[in-house]
Amino acid sequence: MENYNEIQVRELNKSPLGQAFEVILSPPACDTKGDIPLSPVKRKTTSLSDIKKKLDAAEEKRKSQGAEVQKQLAEKREHAKEVIQKAADQSNNFSKMTEEKLNQKMEAYKEKHSAQMEALTDKFRARDKKIEEAKRRESMKER
Q: What single DSSP character describes residue 19?
C-alpha cells in the first residue's frame, strides 16, 4: 500500500438521508525510500552437503511417490480383473441356467406331445375297433 502525505476531506452536501463526502489523496511522495529496502534480502548460504541432502530427499520422495502410483495402478488392474471375471462368471452361469431351463421346457414339450399323440392313437384305435365291430355286426345280421 502506498503512503500518502496529505488527505483532504470535503463535505459535499447534507440531506436528511445522509451525508456525502469527497476524499482527495495527494500523490505519494518520492522520499519514502526508508520504508522499502533497496538491497535484496540476504540469503542463507547453503553448503554442498545440504544441497546433496535435499536432492537425496527429493529423489527418495519421487521414488516413494512412483512406488505408490505403481501400487495404486496394480490395485486398479487387479480390481478390473476381478470385475471382468465376476461378469464372465455371471454370464456363464446365466447361460447355463438358461440352457437348462430351455432343455427342461423342450423335454416337457416332447413328453406332452408324445402323450397327445398316444392319446390320439388310442382314440383312433378305439374308433377303428368300434367300426370293425359295427361291420361285424352288420355282416352277422346279413347272414
A: E
What DSSP letter does each residue of 53-85 carry, written as one string?
A: HHHHHHHHHHHHHHHHHHHHHHHHHHHHHHHHH
DSSP classification of residue 101: H
Strand partners, 85: none
What proportion of the chain, given as a percentage, has pLDDT over 90? 60
d(CA 88, CA 81): 10
All three cell numbers of 3, joined, read 503512503
Q: Give the tens place of pLDDT for each residue, 50-69.
A: 999 999 999 999 999 999 99
Please state whether beta strands 18-25 and 7-15 pair in parallel, antiparallel, or not at all (unpaired): antiparallel
Q: Which residue has the higher pLDDT, 85 or 37?
A: 85
Report the distance separating Cα 46 and Cα 51, nearest Å.
Answer: 7
Helix and strand numbers (H, E) in the chain are 1, 2
Are residues 21 and 8 in contact, defined by beta-carbon separation less than 8 angstroms? Answer: no
Distance CA 66, CA 77 (A): 16
Nearest to 9 by CA among 34, 33, 32, 26: 26
Measured in degrees and rounded to the nearest 5, phi and psi for residue 11 equal -85, 125
